[in-house]
Structure formats: C-alpha cells, structure tokens
Amino acid sequence: MATETRSREMRPSPEAPTPEDREFSFSSDDYAFLRAMLKEKSGIELGPTKQNMVYARLAKRLRKLGFKSFHQYIEFIGTPAGVDELGTTLNALTTNLTKFFRENHHFEHLGTAALQEIRGRAASQGRRLRIWSAGCSSGEEPYSIAITLLRAMPDIKQWDARILATDIDTEMVRRGNEGVYPATALEGMEPDIARKYFEPHGTDKVRLAAEARNLISFKHLNLIGNWPMKGPFDAIFCRNVVIYFDKDTQRVLFDRYANLLVPGGFLYIGHSENLFGITERFKLLGRNIHRKIA
Ligand SMILES: C[S@@+](CC[C@H](N)C(=O)[O-])C[C@H]1O[C@@H](n2cnc3c(N)ncnc32)[C@H](O)[C@@H]1O
After folding, report:
1. What is the pTM of this model?
2. Helix (H/G/I), strand (E/B), else coil: 160
3. How many CB atoms lie within 10 A of CB 248?
4. 198 strand-pairing partners
C-alpha cells in the first residue's frame, strides 16, 4: 500500500480557483471565522493554508443557497434558520478518506492475537465482545472489522458481538448504515472476501452481506462531546482522526478511550499518529497497536 501522509488527506481540490478567479468573495476574516468555528464544534484544526480547500468545499453550497459571498453564508449559519446548514458546513469540512482493510495489519492483529486474548477473557463473561470504530467515515473501517470477526469466529452466533461505528459527519453515518459502495471499492481485496461478504447492488455497486451489516450500529457522535455509551470495549479503532486535533484535545480523548476499554484492551491508531507525550495509559505493541495498561 502506498505511504499515506497528512498532506494527501487534506490535499486541496485541484479545481480550487485562485483568489482572483473566485466566484464568491472569501476574506481572510471569513476563513478565520470558519476555522475557529470548526475547531470549536469538532476539534478539527485547519492550517492557515487550507483556505482554497475550504472555498472549493463550500462554494457549491453558496451557489445552491443563492449567497453572493462567504460573509453572507457565515451570517446565515449563525441564525436560527441556518442551524441545519451548520451541520452541512461541518460535513463539508471533514476529511473522510478511507478504504476497506486500510492498514491491513490492524485487521490481521485483531483476527489473530487480539481475538485469542478477547476470547479467553470473554469466555467467562457471557461471550460479550464490543469494538468501537470511532471516526468511521463511510463505513469501510467497521465493515472491515465485521468481516474480520466473521472470518475468525465461526461460532460468532453464540457470542454477543457488536461493533459501534460513529462519526461527526451525518452523511457518512447515513452511507455507512446503507452499506452500499461502488464496485471499484473491491479492487485489490482478497477475492474470497469480495465473493463472500459483498453482493451485487444494481449495475455498478455492491452491498455488504446482511451478516456483516447486522453486527454494526452506526451512530452520529462528536468525539469532543458527550458519549452516551458506557462500554467497556475490548478494542477501539480511532485511526486517521486525531491528526486533525491539537495535543490537548488528543490528551482528553485518549484518556476517555482508556476509561472505556477493558483492562488490557486494544487501541488502534493511524499510521501518522502516536501517543508520545499524550498519554501513559497505553503500551505500544507495534505498528500503532496499543494495549491499555492503566
Ligand atoms: C480520514 S477519516 C478516517 C476514517 C477511518 N477511521 C480510516 O482510518 O479509514 C476521519 C473521520 O473522522 C471524522 N471526525 C473528525 N472529527 C470528528 C469528531 N470530532 N467526532 C467524530 N468524528 C470526527 C471525520 O468526519 C472523518 O470521517
């Protein structure tokens, strides 16, 4: 798999116009406002150089709503009538890049070493198994978890096994719940997996098999807000999410994850993320797989 970097995740759209060619005026104050709003509502920090990207992502909303400038749009999202639009703004500004079995070594670890331990632990605890995909985007990550469990646990029907999949972006949660993807999403996937867990859906789409869909609950949840669930979780996947958060936000988040994990539970984070200087409640096992130790 090609090396991924933060710059690729946040690459501005190639069609972003230069400031002189812009259809809508977008001042540096407008950009500062949107940056601060996004940070406050989601924890996501956009760098000072992402103004073009924000323009490209929001211009079609302004066009659709008939605004002439970003200033007008910003005023609108601050009014009671603009509350729903604020959600759409947040959806547009999140970066949702994902794919099935991304960073596959995490799923290999889950299906072997992790499940072996979880099985041992859970056998005496009613065969309960809980995994959380936090920042699940359009669902490829939690479905990869579901397929991993189905393949590794022929006796899964005798387990109380559930996967929670959450994201701040309501459109991503909707898509994940639907479980329909372009057929091209299967490219590069093991043919056995593609055959067994995906069904044709229309001419050029596929849908996850019901046994995978039935394992997952998709929910809208803001990681920097309140969490209704009590856990405990055997494993948490939070990959390629905190790269957009500052260190203090990460500190609070990883502490909350540790509180929700069983003793010895697993935390999987993204390829460009790390816990150094953030928390000492986890031990690194290798390749961004961590064990809760405190
Ligand atoms: C780059 S995607 C990563 C998807 C998946 N975890 C993966 O690694 O393939 C990051 C996801 O985090 C979500 N996200 C960002 N801030 C969030 C927050 N405060 N609460 C919940 N989800 C958030 C975004 O909406 C986006 O879908």
Report:
1. 0.94
2. strand
3. 10
4. 208
* Ligand 1 proximity of 139 Cβ (cutoff 6 Å): no
Structure tokens at 34: 């949107």
Query: How far is 31 from 55, CA to CA, in rounded Å?
Result: 9
Which of 110, 168, 242 gets mutated to test ligand 1 (max ligand atoms within 8 A of its CB)?
Answer: 168
pLDDT digits (tens, 9 = 90+) for 152-177: 999 999 999 999 999 999 999 999 99
206-258 confidence digits (pLDDT tens): 999 999 999 999 999 999 999 999 999 999 999 999 999 999 999 999 999 99
Q: Which atom of ligand 1 is nearest to the CA of 140?
A: 9
Considering the domain architecture, whether residues 156 and 37 belong to the same structural domain is answered as: no
Q: Indicate whether 124 and 37 sit together in one domain.
A: no
- The residue range of the domain holding 204 is 105-292
Name the closest-CA residue to atom 15, ligand 1: 241
- Provide the annotated active-site residues: 57, 167
**Last residue in a domain, options 93, 114, 131:** 93
